[in-house]
Amino acid sequence: MSVEIDLTVPLPRFALRVEAALPAGVTAVMGPSGAGKTSLLEAIAGLRPRATGRIAVHHATLLDSARGVALPPEKRRVGYVPQDAGLFPHLSVVENVRFGARADRAAVDAAIDTLELGPLLERRPRTLSGGERQRAALARALATRPRLLLLDEPLAALDVRLRDRVLPWLLRVRAAWSLPCLYVTHNVGEAFAAAEHLLVLRDGRVEVAGDPRALLGAPALAAEAEAGLENLLPGRVVSHDEAGGVTRVRTEAGLDVAVTLAPERPPGAAVTLAIRAEDVLVAAGEVAGLSARNAYAGRVTALERTGVDVTLRCVLDAGGVEVLARITPAAVASLGLRQGGAVWLAVKSHSIRLM
What we know:
Blueprint: E1 3-10, E2 15-22, E3 26-30, H1 37-45, E4 52-57, E5 60-64, E6 69-70, E7 78-81, H2 93-98, H3 105-114, H4 130-142, E8 148-152, H5 160-177, E9 181-184, H6 188-194, E10 197-202, E11 205-210, H7 222-226, E12 230-241, E13 246-251, E14 256-260, E15 270-276, E16 281-283, E17 294-306, E18 309-316, E19 322-327, H8 329-335, E20 342-347, E21 352-354
Parallel strand pairs: 3-9, 3-10, 7-8, 8-9
Antiparallel strand pairs: 1-2, 1-4, 4-5, 5-6, 10-11, 12-13, 12-15, 13-14, 15-21, 16-20, 17-18, 17-20, 18-19
Helix pairs in contact: 3-4, 4-5
Protein backbone atom coordinates (compact mmCIF):
# COMPACT_ATOMS: atom_id res chain seq x y z
CA MET A 1 0.00 0.00 0.00
CA SER A 2 1.32 3.42 -0.95
CA VAL A 3 0.37 6.89 0.29
CA GLU A 4 -0.24 9.77 -2.12
CA ILE A 5 -0.16 13.29 -0.72
CA ASP A 6 -0.81 16.57 -2.56
CA LEU A 7 -1.66 18.83 0.32
CA THR A 8 -1.88 22.50 1.27
CA VAL A 9 -2.54 23.50 4.89
CA PRO A 10 -2.70 27.18 5.93
CA LEU A 11 -0.66 27.75 9.09
CA PRO A 12 0.11 30.97 11.03
CA ARG A 13 3.69 31.35 9.68
CA PHE A 14 3.32 29.77 6.25
CA ALA A 15 1.20 27.47 4.13
CA LEU A 16 2.33 23.88 4.51
CA ARG A 17 2.77 22.42 1.03
CA VAL A 18 3.59 18.73 0.68
CA GLU A 19 3.50 16.74 -2.53
CA ALA A 20 4.84 13.21 -2.17
CA ALA A 21 4.20 9.63 -3.22
CA LEU A 22 5.31 7.49 -0.30
CA PRO A 23 6.12 3.80 -0.79
CA ALA A 24 4.67 1.01 1.30
CA GLY A 25 6.28 0.61 4.71
CA VAL A 26 7.50 3.23 7.16
CA THR A 27 8.31 6.80 6.15
CA ALA A 28 10.26 8.84 8.71
CA VAL A 29 9.34 12.53 8.76
CA MET A 30 12.13 14.81 9.98
CA GLY A 31 12.97 18.49 10.05
CA PRO A 32 13.53 21.35 12.51
CA SER A 33 10.91 22.38 15.05
CA GLY A 34 8.13 24.35 13.39
CA ALA A 35 8.72 22.81 9.97
CA GLY A 36 5.16 21.45 9.77
CA LYS A 37 5.68 17.79 10.74
CA THR A 38 2.85 17.54 13.27
CA SER A 39 0.56 19.65 11.07
CA LEU A 40 1.14 17.18 8.23
CA LEU A 41 0.06 14.26 10.42
CA GLU A 42 -2.96 16.18 11.74
CA ALA A 43 -4.06 17.05 8.21
CA ILE A 44 -3.82 13.41 7.11
CA ALA A 45 -5.82 12.36 10.19
CA GLY A 46 -8.53 14.88 9.32
CA LEU A 47 -7.81 17.21 12.23
CA ARG A 48 -7.02 20.22 10.01
CA PRO A 49 -10.38 21.10 8.36
CA ARG A 50 -8.82 23.89 6.27
CA ALA A 51 -6.50 21.44 4.50
CA THR A 52 -7.04 21.18 0.75
CA GLY A 53 -5.72 18.93 -1.98
CA ARG A 54 -5.67 15.15 -2.18
CA ILE A 55 -4.73 12.32 0.20
CA ALA A 56 -5.08 8.68 -0.81
CA VAL A 57 -3.97 5.46 0.85
CA HIS A 58 -3.73 2.74 -1.76
CA HIS A 59 -7.10 3.09 -3.53
CA ALA A 60 -8.93 4.78 -0.64
CA THR A 61 -9.38 8.55 -1.01
CA LEU A 62 -9.39 10.46 2.28
CA LEU A 63 -9.37 13.95 0.81
CA ASP A 64 -10.00 15.24 -2.71
CA SER A 65 -10.99 18.90 -2.68
CA ALA A 66 -11.56 18.99 -6.45
CA ARG A 67 -14.20 16.27 -6.11
CA GLY A 68 -15.67 17.52 -2.85
CA VAL A 69 -14.37 14.55 -0.84
CA ALA A 70 -13.26 15.23 2.75
CA LEU A 71 -13.81 12.27 5.05
CA PRO A 72 -14.21 13.15 8.74
CA PRO A 73 -11.53 11.78 11.10
CA GLU A 74 -13.67 8.85 12.26
CA LYS A 75 -14.20 7.68 8.68
CA ARG A 76 -10.56 7.79 7.58
CA ARG A 77 -9.39 4.66 9.40
CA VAL A 78 -6.17 6.39 10.37
CA GLY A 79 -4.43 5.40 13.61
CA TYR A 80 -2.87 8.47 15.25
CA VAL A 81 -0.52 8.30 18.25
CA PRO A 82 0.42 11.79 19.52
CA GLN A 83 3.57 12.50 21.47
CA ASP A 84 1.71 12.60 24.81
CA ALA A 85 -0.04 9.23 24.13
CA GLY A 86 -3.49 10.81 24.55
CA LEU A 87 -4.99 8.02 26.67
CA PHE A 88 -8.32 8.57 28.42
CA PRO A 89 -7.40 8.89 32.13
CA HIS A 90 -10.72 7.51 33.41
CA LEU A 91 -10.44 4.29 31.39
CA SER A 92 -8.30 1.22 32.07
CA VAL A 93 -5.69 0.10 29.55
CA VAL A 94 -8.01 -2.51 28.05
CA GLU A 95 -10.85 0.02 27.83
CA ASN A 96 -8.53 2.45 26.07
CA VAL A 97 -7.45 -0.21 23.60
CA ARG A 98 -11.07 -1.19 22.91
CA PHE A 99 -12.10 2.42 22.32
CA GLY A 100 -12.90 2.88 18.65
CA ALA A 101 -12.39 -0.80 17.81
CA ARG A 102 -16.12 -1.25 17.11
CA ALA A 103 -16.33 -4.56 18.97
CA ASP A 104 -13.55 -6.04 16.82
CA ARG A 105 -12.33 -8.46 19.49
CA ALA A 106 -9.77 -10.09 17.18
CA ALA A 107 -8.08 -6.76 16.43
CA VAL A 108 -8.03 -5.84 20.13
CA ASP A 109 -6.51 -9.18 21.09
CA ALA A 110 -3.91 -8.96 18.31
CA ALA A 111 -2.85 -5.46 19.39
CA ILE A 112 -2.60 -6.51 23.04
CA ASP A 113 -0.59 -9.58 22.08
CA THR A 114 1.81 -7.69 19.79
CA LEU A 115 2.62 -5.14 22.49
CA GLU A 116 2.43 -7.63 25.39
CA LEU A 117 0.01 -5.55 27.43
CA GLY A 118 -1.59 -8.48 29.27
CA PRO A 119 -0.25 -7.60 32.76
CA LEU A 120 -1.34 -3.94 32.37
CA LEU A 121 -4.92 -4.33 31.15
CA GLU A 122 -6.75 -3.31 34.33
CA ARG A 123 -4.48 -0.41 35.22
CA ARG A 124 -5.26 3.28 34.67
CA PRO A 125 -2.91 5.54 32.64
CA ARG A 126 -1.74 7.48 35.71
CA THR A 127 -0.19 4.28 37.13
CA LEU A 128 1.82 3.53 33.97
CA SER A 129 5.35 4.52 33.07
CA GLY A 130 5.90 6.69 30.01
CA GLY A 131 6.91 3.67 27.97
CA GLU A 132 3.85 1.68 29.05
CA ARG A 133 1.57 4.57 28.12
CA GLN A 134 3.08 4.75 24.64
CA ARG A 135 2.61 1.00 24.18
CA ALA A 136 -1.03 1.29 25.23
CA ALA A 137 -1.60 4.23 22.86
CA LEU A 138 -0.02 2.30 20.01
CA ALA A 139 -2.21 -0.74 20.76
CA ARG A 140 -5.31 1.47 20.78
CA ALA A 141 -4.39 2.79 17.32
CA LEU A 142 -3.75 -0.72 15.97
CA ALA A 143 -7.01 -2.10 17.37
CA THR A 144 -9.00 0.11 14.98
CA ARG A 145 -7.46 -1.84 12.06
CA PRO A 146 -6.15 1.38 10.48
CA ARG A 147 -5.24 1.63 6.81
CA LEU A 148 -2.50 4.10 7.84
CA LEU A 149 -0.57 4.64 11.10
CA LEU A 150 0.67 8.08 12.18
CA LEU A 151 3.25 8.32 14.99
CA ASP A 152 4.18 11.79 16.23
CA GLU A 153 7.54 11.54 18.02
CA PRO A 154 6.42 8.61 20.19
CA LEU A 155 9.82 8.41 21.93
CA ALA A 156 10.65 12.11 22.31
CA ALA A 157 9.30 12.46 25.86
CA LEU A 158 11.04 9.31 27.12
CA ASP A 159 14.45 9.07 28.73
CA VAL A 160 17.08 6.81 27.18
CA ARG A 161 16.13 3.82 29.36
CA LEU A 162 12.44 4.00 28.40
CA ARG A 163 13.27 4.75 24.77
CA ASP A 164 15.31 1.56 24.66
CA ARG A 165 12.29 -0.35 25.92
CA VAL A 166 9.73 1.13 23.51
CA LEU A 167 11.68 1.22 20.23
CA PRO A 168 11.74 -2.59 19.88
CA TRP A 169 7.93 -2.58 20.17
CA LEU A 170 7.75 -0.15 17.26
CA LEU A 171 9.99 -2.43 15.21
CA ARG A 172 7.75 -5.37 16.16
CA VAL A 173 4.66 -3.51 14.96
CA ARG A 174 6.40 -2.73 11.68
CA ALA A 175 7.17 -6.41 11.15
CA ALA A 176 3.85 -7.87 12.33
CA TRP A 177 1.23 -5.47 10.97
CA SER A 178 2.62 -4.42 7.55
CA LEU A 179 0.94 -1.01 7.73
CA PRO A 180 2.01 2.10 5.85
CA CYS A 181 3.21 4.47 8.53
CA LEU A 182 4.42 8.06 8.89
CA TYR A 183 6.82 8.36 11.82
CA VAL A 184 7.87 11.81 13.04
CA THR A 185 11.25 11.81 14.76
CA HIS A 186 14.27 14.03 15.42
CA ASN A 187 16.59 11.03 15.78
CA VAL A 188 18.45 9.89 12.66
CA GLY A 189 19.18 6.53 14.26
CA GLU A 190 15.45 5.89 14.76
CA ALA A 191 14.79 6.87 11.15
CA PHE A 192 17.45 4.45 9.91
CA ALA A 193 16.15 1.64 12.13
CA ALA A 194 12.43 2.00 11.51
CA ALA A 195 12.00 3.52 8.06
CA GLU A 196 12.46 2.57 4.44
CA HIS A 197 11.79 6.13 3.25
CA LEU A 198 12.59 9.59 4.61
CA LEU A 199 10.82 12.91 4.15
CA VAL A 200 12.57 16.05 5.44
CA LEU A 201 10.46 19.21 5.89
CA ARG A 202 11.71 22.76 6.31
CA ASP A 203 9.47 25.84 6.54
CA GLY A 204 6.48 23.92 5.28
CA ARG A 205 8.14 22.44 2.20
CA VAL A 206 9.72 19.10 1.32
CA GLU A 207 13.47 19.76 1.38
CA VAL A 208 14.59 16.24 0.49
CA ALA A 209 13.08 12.76 0.19
CA GLY A 210 14.40 9.27 -0.46
CA ASP A 211 16.16 6.30 1.14
CA PRO A 212 17.37 7.33 4.64
CA ARG A 213 20.87 5.91 4.30
CA ALA A 214 21.34 7.35 0.83
CA LEU A 215 20.55 10.79 2.29
CA LEU A 216 22.96 10.52 5.22
CA GLY A 217 25.36 13.12 3.81
CA ALA A 218 22.65 15.53 2.66
CA PRO A 219 22.89 19.04 4.17
CA ALA A 220 19.28 18.68 5.35
CA LEU A 221 20.36 15.95 7.79
CA ALA A 222 23.70 17.43 8.87
CA ALA A 223 22.60 18.75 12.27
CA GLU A 224 20.56 15.67 13.16
CA ALA A 225 23.32 13.28 12.06
CA GLU A 226 25.94 15.19 14.03
CA ALA A 227 23.79 14.83 17.17
CA GLY A 228 24.23 11.07 17.11
CA LEU A 229 23.86 7.96 14.99
CA GLU A 230 23.10 4.46 16.15
CA ASN A 231 23.20 1.03 14.59
CA LEU A 232 20.10 -0.93 15.59
CA LEU A 233 20.27 -4.65 14.88
CA PRO A 234 17.36 -6.98 15.76
CA GLY A 235 18.25 -10.50 16.86
CA ARG A 236 17.78 -13.22 19.48
CA VAL A 237 19.68 -14.33 22.55
CA VAL A 238 21.65 -17.52 21.88
CA SER A 239 23.37 -18.29 25.19
CA HIS A 240 24.97 -16.93 28.35
CA ASP A 241 28.60 -17.36 29.38
CA GLU A 242 28.65 -16.50 33.09
CA ALA A 243 32.34 -17.29 33.48
CA GLY A 244 33.22 -15.05 30.55
CA GLY A 245 30.72 -12.36 31.56
CA VAL A 246 29.00 -12.21 28.15
CA THR A 247 25.70 -12.98 26.51
CA ARG A 248 25.78 -14.13 22.90
CA VAL A 249 23.26 -12.76 20.42
CA ARG A 250 22.70 -13.69 16.79
CA THR A 251 21.21 -11.00 14.59
CA GLU A 252 18.55 -11.65 11.97
CA ALA A 253 21.30 -11.57 9.32
CA GLY A 254 23.27 -14.26 11.16
CA LEU A 255 25.92 -12.05 12.76
CA ASP A 256 27.17 -13.37 16.13
CA VAL A 257 27.67 -10.63 18.72
CA ALA A 258 28.91 -10.73 22.33
CA VAL A 259 27.34 -8.27 24.77
CA THR A 260 27.66 -7.72 28.50
CA LEU A 261 26.11 -10.62 30.46
CA ALA A 262 22.32 -10.23 30.59
CA PRO A 263 20.99 -13.38 32.32
CA GLU A 264 17.51 -11.85 32.62
CA ARG A 265 17.10 -12.32 28.84
CA PRO A 266 16.48 -16.06 28.28
CA PRO A 267 17.85 -17.88 25.24
CA GLY A 268 15.50 -17.33 22.30
CA ALA A 269 14.34 -13.91 23.55
CA ALA A 270 13.98 -11.26 20.85
CA VAL A 271 16.26 -8.27 21.43
CA THR A 272 17.61 -5.27 19.56
CA LEU A 273 21.28 -4.32 19.73
CA ALA A 274 22.07 -0.59 19.84
CA ILE A 275 25.60 0.48 18.91
CA ARG A 276 26.58 4.14 18.67
CA ALA A 277 28.48 4.92 15.48
CA GLU A 278 31.25 6.62 17.46
CA ASP A 279 31.75 3.45 19.53
CA VAL A 280 32.74 1.41 16.48
CA LEU A 281 36.53 1.07 16.23
CA VAL A 282 37.92 1.20 12.69
CA ALA A 283 41.12 -0.41 11.38
CA ALA A 284 42.69 -0.66 7.94
CA GLY A 285 44.15 -4.09 8.72
CA GLU A 286 43.02 -7.24 10.45
CA VAL A 287 42.19 -6.65 14.11
CA ALA A 288 44.20 -8.60 16.70
CA GLY A 289 45.22 -8.14 20.32
CA LEU A 290 42.24 -5.98 21.31
CA SER A 291 39.97 -6.31 24.33
CA ALA A 292 36.96 -5.79 22.05
CA ARG A 293 35.11 -9.09 21.76
CA ASN A 294 33.46 -8.30 18.43
CA ALA A 295 35.67 -7.85 15.35
CA TYR A 296 34.49 -8.15 11.75
CA ALA A 297 35.93 -7.75 8.27
CA GLY A 298 34.06 -5.75 5.66
CA ARG A 299 34.31 -3.03 3.08
CA VAL A 300 33.52 0.69 2.92
CA THR A 301 30.51 1.47 0.75
CA ALA A 302 30.41 5.24 1.35
CA LEU A 303 32.09 8.04 3.29
CA GLU A 304 29.79 10.91 4.28
CA ARG A 305 30.83 14.15 5.98
CA THR A 306 28.43 14.59 8.92
CA GLY A 307 29.29 17.70 10.85
CA VAL A 308 32.92 17.78 11.94
CA ASP A 309 33.29 14.01 11.54
CA VAL A 310 33.03 11.46 8.76
CA THR A 311 30.47 8.66 8.87
CA LEU A 312 31.52 5.43 7.18
CA ARG A 313 28.89 3.14 5.73
CA CYS A 314 30.34 -0.34 5.83
CA VAL A 315 29.03 -3.78 4.84
CA LEU A 316 30.36 -6.70 6.86
CA ASP A 317 31.48 -9.87 5.14
CA ALA A 318 29.45 -11.79 7.73
CA GLY A 319 25.80 -11.67 6.73
CA GLY A 320 26.07 -8.49 4.65
CA VAL A 321 25.17 -6.39 7.71
CA GLU A 322 25.47 -2.63 7.18
CA VAL A 323 27.20 -0.76 10.01
CA LEU A 324 27.75 2.96 10.49
CA ALA A 325 31.01 4.13 12.08
CA ARG A 326 31.97 7.71 12.92
CA ILE A 327 35.61 8.85 12.92
CA THR A 328 37.53 12.08 12.31
CA PRO A 329 38.66 13.20 8.84
CA ALA A 330 42.24 12.85 10.12
CA ALA A 331 41.61 9.18 10.92
CA VAL A 332 40.18 8.62 7.44
CA ALA A 333 43.34 10.08 5.92
CA SER A 334 45.79 8.22 8.15
CA LEU A 335 44.04 4.88 7.57
CA GLY A 336 43.80 5.47 3.84
CA LEU A 337 40.10 4.62 3.81
CA ARG A 338 38.23 4.85 0.52
CA GLN A 339 34.96 3.73 -0.99
CA GLY A 340 35.15 0.05 -1.90
CA GLY A 341 38.23 -0.50 0.27
CA ALA A 342 38.64 -3.20 2.91
CA VAL A 343 38.01 -2.30 6.54
CA TRP A 344 37.91 -4.05 9.92
CA LEU A 345 35.47 -2.98 12.62
CA ALA A 346 35.56 -3.79 16.32
CA VAL A 347 33.06 -3.14 19.11
CA LYS A 348 33.50 -3.71 22.84
CA SER A 349 30.75 -5.74 24.43
CA HIS A 350 30.24 -2.94 27.00
CA SER A 351 29.55 -0.49 24.15
CA ILE A 352 26.45 -2.44 23.02
CA ARG A 353 23.10 -1.71 24.64
CA LEU A 354 20.59 -4.56 24.74
CA MET A 355 17.09 -3.28 24.03
